[in-house]
Amino acid sequence: MTKTILITGAGSGIGRDAAFALAARGHRVLATTLDEAQAAALRAEAAQRGQPLEVFTLDISSAADRQLLLPLALDVLINNAGVGESGSLAEVDIDRIRQVFEVNVFATLALTQLALRGMIARRRGTVLFVSSIAGRLPVPFLMPYAMSKFALSAAGAGLRAEMDQLGAQVQIALIEPGAIHTGFNQAMVARKYAWMGSQSYFAGQAERMRTREGRLFGLLEARDTRSIVACIVRAAEARRPRLRYVAPWIQGFGVRLARIFGV
C-alpha cells in the first residue's frame, strides 16, 4: 500500500537515507529540510537517482513552518529532525540545554499535534519518533542531548498508550539509533570545546577527552545507516508497529546489559 510520508531533517544522514529508501518502495515521500541549501542539494540528488522526492524546507522550531502540515493528509510522520549539544551538566549554559529541548522535544511535539489532528479525524496514521539509545542510558558529557532523548522516548511511549485508549487506530513508535557514522556525533561532542575555557572544571582533561571520544566513536559507530533505515521502513509500513526499534542490534543489546548490571 502506497503511503504519504513526511520526514523531517531529511537533508542529511539517517533522514536523507530513509527518505530515499521509502521512495524506492513506492511511497510518496515529502522530504523536508532545515534550509534551502539542503533542499537544493537533496533535489539534485533525487534527480540524479531518478527517485521522486517532494522536497521543501520545514524548520520545525518555526510555528509558521509547522502550519504547512495542516493541509496534508499524512499517513506517516517521521520526526527525525533534531540537534545535538554536549558538555558537563555542572557548567553548560542552561540556554544551550533549553535550545536542545526546544527543538528535540517541544517543536517535535508541536508538529506531532498538528499531524495528529488529521490522523485522529481519519482514524488512521503512524507517527515515528527518532530518539536515540542515548535516551536509555546516561552518558557523561552528552547529557544535554541525552536528556532530550530520554524525554522524547517517554513522550512517544505515553502518546502510544493515549492513542490506544482513544481507539483511533493511530500508531506511535520509537526509532532508537545507536552510534552511526553520519558526522552528527562528531559535531555534537565538539560543540563543548567551543565554550570550555581555562575556567572549566574539566579544562585539564580536555585533550584526553578529545582523544578518548575519537577512539570511542571509531570503535562503536556503525559505518552506514542501513540497519536503522530498515527499522524506519518496517515501522512506517507496519499495520501495528512495535513500540521500539533499535539498531544496530549489538548496541541495543549492550545498553540492555548495562542497565541490568546497573551501569
- Between the first and last Cα atoms, what is the distance in angstroms? 43 Å
Q: Report low-confidence residues grouped into runs of 5 or more.
A: none
The CATH superfamily bears the name NAD(P)-binding Rossmann-like Domain
Oligomer: single chain
Number of domains: 1
Average pLDDT level: 93
Structural key phrases:
263 residues; alpha/beta; 7-stranded parallel sheet; 9 helices; globular
Structure in words:
Helix 4 (94-122) links the parallel strand 4 and strand 5 (125-130). The protein has 263 residues and is an alpha/beta fold. Helix content is 49%, strand content 14%. The model has no long low-confidence stretch (mean pLDDT 93). It has a single domain (4-260), classed as Rossmann fold (3-Layer(aba) Sandwich). It is globular. The chain contains nine helices and seven strands, in the order E-H-E-H-E-H-E-H-E-H-E-H-H-H-E-H. It has a seven-stranded parallel sheet, sandwiched between helices. It has helices spanning 13-24, 36-49, 63-66, 94-122, 143-166, 184-191, 206-220, 226-237, 249-260; strands at 4-7, 28-33, 53-57, 76-79, 125-130, 170-177, 244-247.
SSE blueprint:
Blueprint (H helix, E strand, L loop, with lengths): L3 E4 L5 H12 L3 E6 L2 H14 L3 E5 L5 H4 L9 E4 L14 H29 L2 E6 L12 H24 L3 E8 L6 H8 L14 H15 L5 H12 L6 E4 L1 H12 L3
Helix pairs in contact: 1-8, 4-5, 6-7
Briefly summarize what is shown.
This protein is of the alpha/beta class and 263 residues long. The protein has helices at residues 13-24, 36-49, 63-66, 94-122, 143-166, 184-191, 206-220, 226-237, 249-260, and strands at residues 4-7, 28-33, 53-57, 76-79, 125-130, 170-177, 244-247.
